[in-house]
Specification:
This protein is about 40% helix and about 5% strand. With about 425 residues, it is an alpha/beta fold. α7 packs across α9, α11 packs across α13 and α13 packs parallel to α16. This is Sulfotransferase.
Length: about 425
């Protein structure tokens, strides 16, 4: 190769190296911080960059509850009235449609699921907080039965009962399904990020003062158009309570949570002297007897057996099959459409099958003699039938056939022959 030709190639290569390529031009060079605007500096910060993936979903999550439940009028104004959401009831005197009361282990979780999924009602389990929960149609609960319970006879007794519950450990509070937050936004601005502290204990104290016996005194802040008592076979319910609250079997110790609440709500009975079966039995008896008395006074409208009731039948008892007694009119039209269908196989017309929160999986089956003194750790006189008589009376009052129960239980039973639920 000649020298002149080689020089030409070297010049061409140098020229090519010095010329920017298209790919080089497209690469965005980072800005010098001095050339950035305040907004660019703010949005480029690592915390802000990562935070938008956390904060935005959280904001949307809050808006999902805050706008429809507390300020649905915002949507109406923003759409010039084209979209009108259901009215808020938080902070108003508007009654809820129904309150279903049932002792623990009587199927409250299952019935909540039935009414929500089959009838599309806004029903809460244990909570009446309509500011942050879709519970505008009502609640199913055991603890809200406190509004029908008589307060302790003395101020000292009342203070002792409330202190027993509100000063308890969070684990016991959680196990019994009660928390002050279930009654709505805390008046003392307690933090939702803290599950249980001094602030929540104060909130608990004031809520119990307001709620205990409020139906008897006609002072309840939250009203329900219908109050209904849900019941389950008392012995089956006792079996579930025993499995849940007896530490170490039938003759074991009673869970502290049950002792705390039973002693507080029914201070006229010494639960600490009971065997575990007796504690569970008296707790069940006292609760249901109080609901029966409330029904006699006209405070509770009706009752039903969960073992033989459908969602549509509950809707009828709750006044949802009559336009005049339905609080929120669209519910009436929907219930008419669902429960008025000729199809008898519609899920809402099927008897409720217990499938949630099963506890007693073929472990305990009680008979009448198991309730007597001297049995399973009982300190009462051998053969004492006080509890047995109370439970038999409960059978009759609730319409169950006591003759179908065994005299002696606690024997192996066929798989799935005893369904239980909290």
């Amino acid at each position: 190769m000649s020298r002149s030709r080689r020089n030409k190639q070297e010049k061409a290569a140098a020229k090519s190296d010095s010329k920017p390529t298209a790919s080089t031009n497209n690469v965005k060079q980072p800005k010098n911080r001095d050339d950035m605007t305040m907004w660019e500096i703010f949005t480029s910060h690592p915390l802000i960059y990562v935070g938008k993936f956390i904060l935005l979903p959280y904001i949307f999550y809050l808006a999902y509850y805050f706008i429809p439940l507390q300020h649905p009028e915002y949507v109406s104004k923003a759409t010039a009235g084209l979209i009108n959401l259901r009215p808020a009831i938080h902070g108003t005197t508007t009654p809820r449609q129904l309150l279903i009361l049932a002792s623990q282990s009587s199927g409250t979780v299952q019935m909540t699921k039935e009414l929500k999924e089959k009838l599309h009602l806004e029903i809460g389990h244990e909570t009446v907080d309509a500011a942050w929960n879709y519970v505008r149609d009502g609640t199913i609960s055991w603890f809200h039965g406190i509004r029908f319970l008589t307060q302790p006879t003395t101020k000292e007794g009342m203070l002792q009962s409330i202190t027993g519950i509100c000063n308890d450990d969070f684990l016991n509070v959680f196990n019994m399904g009660f928390h002050p937050a279930e009654y709505g936004p805390p008046k003392r601005n307690c933090s939702y990020r803290t599950k249980w502290d001094a602030c929540w204990k104060k909130e608990c104290f004031h809520i119990l003062l307001d709620e205990w016996g409020c139906s008897i005194n006609n002072t309840c802040d939250i009203q329900f158009a219908y109050n209904i008592h849900q019941v389950r076979n008392p012995l089956r319910t006792m079996e579930s309570l025993v499995v849940k609250f007896c530490i170490g079997g039938l003759e074991g110790e009673v869970q502290p949570a049950l002792l705390t609440y039973a002693t507080a709500l029914f201070p006229f009975h010494n639960f600490r002297e009971d065997s575990c079966i007796e504690a569970a039995g008296y707790f069940l008896v006292f609760y249901n007897e109080a609901m029966i008395e409330a029904r006699k006074r006209g405070k509770i409208n009706s009752f039903y057996h969960i073992e033989e009731t459908t969602a549509c039948q509950v809707a009828e008892m709750a006044g949802l099959t009559s336009l005049e007694t339905t609080v929120y009119e669209p519910n009436y039209h929907r219930i008419q459409r669902i429960c008025g269908e000729s199809d008898a196989n519609h899920p809402a017309k099927q008897i409720v099958k217990q499938s949630l929160n099963k506890v007693n999986l073929d472990m305990v089956h009680l008979g009448w003699k198991d309730l007597r003194g001297g049995m399973h750790g009982s300190k009462r006189k051998n053969g004492d039938a006080t509890l047995e008589k109370r439970v038999r009376n409960l059978f009759r009052a609730l319409g169950y056939d006591e003759s179908k129960e065994l005299d002696v239980g606690v024997v192996p039973i066929k798989p799935s022959s005893v369904d239980t639920e909290l």
